[in-house]
Amino acid sequence: MKILIGDDQTATRQLYVAMLEQYQCQITEATTGREVLLSIQAERPDLIVLDHNMPEMTGYEVIQELQKSPEFKKIPIIFITGKNFDQEFRDLIKLEVAEFVPKPFNVETLLEAIEKVTGRPLPPNP
Are 112 and 15 in contact (CB under 8 A)? Predict the structure, then answer.
């Protein structure tokens, strides 16, 4: 499985990569919204873990762009956000984001979201 991680925080991406190594996935990282879009075109990921707050384009803007493509709008997205349930959040729900993970979250929350979206069982705890 190919997973694209879109987050501008290096430490956060490293945490996600460390967590996802248990899944034996091919992981691609992007640090800006534009990089996310370019990586999607180049890598064709099976799943996107996308933060809302990124430079150049927000995660929300990335999702809006993906919705314009019949091919890319089918890629499930786990959207990471610290935003409250404002109008922007409600609009995201309409865009069919597969899962939302509110910040702050623990490792288990993200792994459960990945399991739910992919249908793959969680790896055993070490």
Answer: no
Of the CATH numbers 3.40.50.720, 3.40.50.2300, 3.30.230.10, 3.40.1390.10, which one belongs to the domain with range 2-118?
Answer: 3.40.50.2300
Q: Alpha helix (H) ranges present in the chain?
A: 10-20, 33-43, 59-66, 87-94, 107-118
Predicted pLDDT of residue 92: 64
pLDDT one-digit tens code per residue, 85-114: 666 666 666 667 888 888 887 778 888 898
In the sheet that holds 99-102, the strands lie side by side as: 26-30, 2-6, 47-51, 77-81, 99-102
48: left (phi over 0), alpha (psi -120 to 50) or beta: beta
Q: Which of 49-53, 69-73, 80-84 has the lowest mean pLDDT?
A: 80-84
Nearest to 32 by CA among 3, 61, 11: 61
